[in-house]
Structure formats: structure tokens, C-alpha cells
Amino acid sequence: MKLQPEALKQFVSRVFANIGCGGDEADCIGDHLVEANLAGHDSHGVIRTPIYVEWLNAGKVVANQNLDITIDSPTLTVADGNLGFGQWIGKQITAIGIDKCKEQGMSIVALRNAGHLGRIGHYAEMAAVEGLVSLHFVNTSGLGMFVVPSGGLDARLSVNPIAVGFPLPGRSPFILDMAAASAAEGKLKVARNKGVPVPAGWILDSKGQPTTDPNDFYTDPMGAILPFGGHKGYGLGLVAEILAGALTGAGCSQPGKTQLEQGMLSIYVDPQKLQSGDAFAAEIGRYIDFVKTSRPSTPDGKVLIPGDIEEQTRAVRRQGLELDKATWKQLTDAAQACDVPQELIDAAVMSNDD
Fold this sequence. Notes:
- The longest helix has 19 residues, at about 85-105.
- The protein folds into two domains: about 1-65 and about 295-354, Malate/L-lactate/L-sulpholactate dehydrogenase, four-helix barrel (Hypothetical Oxidoreductase Yiak, Chain: A, domain 1); about 65-180 and about 230-290, Ribosomal Protein S8, Chain: A, domain 1 (2-Layer Sandwich).
- It is α+β, with helices and mostly antiparallel strands.
- The protein is globular.
- Helices cover about 40% and strands about 15% of the residues.
């Protein structure tokens, strides 16, 4: 199924408007989800729409929420997201971090109790556009506790996304956007919808045995996700859990949670306040160019930096965004249940070749 991205944004935004989100919030969520698909992060794209609708109907996320600021200083903000839609709450807290960093040269923002924040690289991109370096660490307080510790069989960590962004004047920003695990749980949803296996080393079944079938993760009891890189990835996951959970006050993963509550610690730095003129931009540009002179490991290969693949994917998907049939059906079923006009749904479809 090939879809027109801007029409898809309007369609998805209408879903959220029809379930009670204000216009700006609905547009924010629709834009964020489709932009995740355009960047190639289907795990955090429109596949989330039916899940968010279900959560809203169950009272597990709340529409039209604004931040409650509990600590406010020139360089530090601590805020509660009131279980608001994460894309909307995330946009608000990132804007605060950017504004304070521009004034003071650096800022730290700690977010508690937000709904699912979506693609975390989105916030690093927001900062990079403004010329700022940023680091973001995210966890959940327990509902997303899917990851086993290195050497363990029982899940004790969240997937814990980490994003780092650097502005690169004259070119696309450096955006490292990753889970501190072998895979984000959303990638398992995508694989299950497509009916394809996941790579070896991603998941365990409910008995602790390695598997490549994503359905083995969604059993009762559930399977688990492995840390990436063994003990090193596990260590990074623990760091993210502690920074986003314990340090923000959001809480680290624990059993018994029935709704997704995310914490995020973000740090912003203005390189112009650390170095005079364009010294940072010149040095990072020089170094990246040097890195890319490394001989490729395959004849037709190319050395890339974080963010390159997303930009390449956007260039292709802006011409037409592919969705598998199962995800499209879930999306349209949710839209029809939310009284989205059929003509708005049909307007997003470019072809039915798939």
C-alpha cells in the first residue's frame, strides 16, 4: 500500500481530533507519527495510532494536557506530563529546553509521567535545527519492561531509547537515535504485521529460548528483548534507566504497572557559547569528512554517519510511503471507529499495488 505523506498526516490528525484532542495537539501527533515513518522508523509511526486510541479510551493517556512545572530555574526545568500524549508533551518540554539553552548556553530538563513520547530522535532534530547539541535518555516506569539484563532471563529494564543530536551547518544533522536494546518493541509489531522473522539475537520466547518469530514475544507470559552488544549494551540500558527514571523522579522500571508512563532527561548545549565563531562546526565537519574517507567494506558500500540513513529514506518515502496491509487495516479500522470520513482515508492512498 503506497500512501501520500501529507494526506496521511491529515487523515491521522483527524483520528486524534475526533477522539478529543485539540487541533494543535492532533496535528502534532499526526505530524510526528508520519515523520517517523518517513525517516524509516516504522516502529514509531502510524502503527501506533490504534494503540493510542485504545489507551485514550481506557484512560491510560489523557488528551489536551500541558506541562506542570515543578522546578524552574534559568538552566533547569522539572515537569510533569500529566499522562498527556507524549508527542504533544515532548514538543512542549523540548521547546523549554531549547529556549533556556539559547539564553544560558546550556539547560537540563527532566520530564516525568508522560505518555509514549514517540521517536526520540525527533526532539534531537528540533534542537539541531536551532543550532544546539542535545542528549536525551528515556525509560518507562514498568509497563514497557521488556529487556533482560545481560546474563538474565527475566525482563528488568525498559527498552530505553537514547538520542544525541549535533547541528551540521550546510548539511543534515548528526542524529543518533537508538534503543538501548537489540530492538525497540515497535519493531516486533512491524515484523509481526508483515509476517516476517526478526534477526537472530533480538528476542527470547517465554521460556527464555532464542527465537526469530515475533509472535513468540507476544505470548502469555510474554517473551523478552535482549540487550544489544551483551554486557556493554546492558550497561548503557542501565544508565538510561537511572537517568530517565531515578534522576528525573519518574521512577525506574518495576512490576505491576498497568499504563505506560515515560520519563526523559534531556541536556542541551549551545556550541556557540563554548567556542568562538564557527570553530565547532568546522571541526565536526572536518572530522566527519575524515571518517567518511575510510575505505568501504564492500565494493558498492559507503561509510555513513548517524542520520544519513534517515535522510536517504525520507528522500524516497516522500514520493510515496509504503505500509503493509495489516498495518493499513488496523489504521483504517481505528479511523472508521473514530468517524473519520472515508474520503479523507481514500485521499491518502496513492496505489494498491502491494
